[in-house]
Amino acid sequence: GAASYSMFSGDISSLRQTLDALKPDLKAPTDSITSSLAALEAAAASANQLSTGFVDELAALRSDMGELSKVVREVATGVDKGAASYSMFSGDISSLRQTLDALKPDL
Q1: What is the model's pTM?
Q2: In which domain of life is the source organism classified (predicted)?
């Protein structure tokens, strides 16, 4: 058992030395990955903020379009009422003309 332990102990010691030598090489990519992940998280947060802003703007636009639609309906109603009034007065004006034309010879 002691011989096996000694053999593994040497292997473990050599493995430790190898890993210690690799630590700086392993740390650089880890820092790079951490930095990339932080940048990705920031980009995702920014995209989320833009998306929220877009949704808010879309809701405001939808509200404005609703108001515009309401105004258009009111204008259309006013135009219809104006057309009806014009039609009524047009008949009155026409009959007034006929009356005046009939009176012309007397005048």
Answers
A1: 0.39
A2: Eukaryota
